Structure formats: C-alpha cells, structure tokens
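--- STAGE predict ---
source: upstream dedup step, 1 unique chain passed
mode: sequence only
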Amino acid sequence: MQPLTVAEILDIDAYARVRDDYRARVIAHKRQRRVSVGPRVSLVFEDRETLRYQIQEMTRVERTTDPQKVQVEVDVYNELVPGPGELSATLFIEITESTRIRAELDRLIGLHEHVALEIGGERVPARFDPRQLEDDRISAVHYLRFALAPAQIERFADAALPVALRIDHPRYEARSALAPATRQSLAVDLSGDPAPIFRFGAAPPPPRPAPRVVAARGRVRALELSAGRVVVEGVPPAPPFPALPDDLAAELLALAREIAADWLRQGRPSELAIDAAGPHARIEIRAR
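--- STAGE serialize ---
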C-alpha cells in the first residue's frame, strides 16, 4: 500500500466544505474494520483512508496551515500504513472505570505476546510497535501488524476457511471471528491500495477580484480588466450600439479617447475595439 502524500491532504478551509459527507463515509468504512475481541479489547484495522481521515482531523483541530507541519503529520501516520502482505491495526484496551484503569492495565502486561490472527487454524502472531513496549507497564492504545505469507493471503480470501482474532493472555482470553464484510475490506489491504471512499473535488478557483474603476464621468466609467486592458461602459449598462442614443455614444467615445491619449503620452500606444453585436455598448482599450 502506497504511503500518503501532502498533496492528498486538503487545507482546512477546503476540508471544512466536505467534512460532513467525508466523515460519514469514513465512519461507515471504519465500522466494517473494527473488531471487538472480548469485552475490553477492540482492534481497528488501518488503511490509507482511515489514516488520511485522522490527518485531516488533526490538522483541522490544530488549525495547521504550514505545509511543513502537515508533512510532519503525514510522516507520523504513514508509519501505520500496512506494507505488502500486511494488515495494520490500532488496538484499544477499553476500561470505563476510571479508578481501575491502572490496575486493569497492569493485569494485561505481556499482552503483546498473546494476540494473533487465526487463518483456518494457522496462527499469525501480531507484531507490536516495540517503541511502545515496557517491561512493567502497558498503555491503553497499541499499534500492531500481522505479516501474512502469500499462501496465508490466499487462505484469507477463501470464504470457506474461518478467520478470527484470538487473545490468549493468562488474564484475558477471547476469540472473535471476522465478519464477511470485515474480511472483504481487509482483503483489499492485502492486494494493494484501496479505492478512495471519497474523492475530493478540485478546490474551487479563488474568486476573481472586481475590476478596478480607473475613471468615471456622468453616465460612463472605465474598468481595468487587466494590465493593458480597459473597458469603457455605461452606468447602468447601456443598450447595444445599434440602439444607443447619440449623446451616450459620444460620452463613451470621449472617455475612451481620453484614456488612449493619456496612455500614448506615457509611451503606451493602444487601439480601440467596439463590440457592435454585444448586448451592451462597450469600448475596449487595448495596449499594443
């Protein structure tokens, strides 16, 4: 599975526009990939989609806009992207009684040696992140991987063979068979990159700034559309040239000639262009 890149992370404003829909889809996706193993342990299998969501939420909460800081988040979560033939998961030890958290966690010291994926009766031990392991303490959240051999990947895809998660710790024993939807989702991880569950649209282009008024007189004004391009128009919009009153036509032409003469004094020759077929009479001054 390919690592994530900064280019795949929306800025916080663009993310805010799609967050509700995207969040709903990720929650549904994660629901298929969450497995409870007994009353106090659950695993959520990670992929590019679950990890991209976590990065988006982290940058949103922390209002991160610096690309270098976004890169730091991407680097951290990329460590959880499963490699070829791997399943990656976050394990949660769920203890609701606040006064018993430490005591209950201490009872599960050594858990990292007792978690496995069973494929048709064959045991694939979990590999916990060694940076989280201590001899005399255990945390409530752990990151782990299951590395499957090619033959095990084939058996994982065989619906006739049972696949389950098992914990056989002396103080905690539980087994949970993987539901068909979970196996189907995880089989994608073992075959390559998942298809995006949400395709971010291209960010809308920034609004164009309003043209700058460079001159105004009576019923006409001149707008700077861009460098070397000014249009003279009526205010309110004038009728088309064939129906334009002579006095208003004279006002448009006088202002256009004045601007052209001023440009010429600055060493900027120009030309006048009249759109006789347009819905409103306008004269454009273009630098040459």
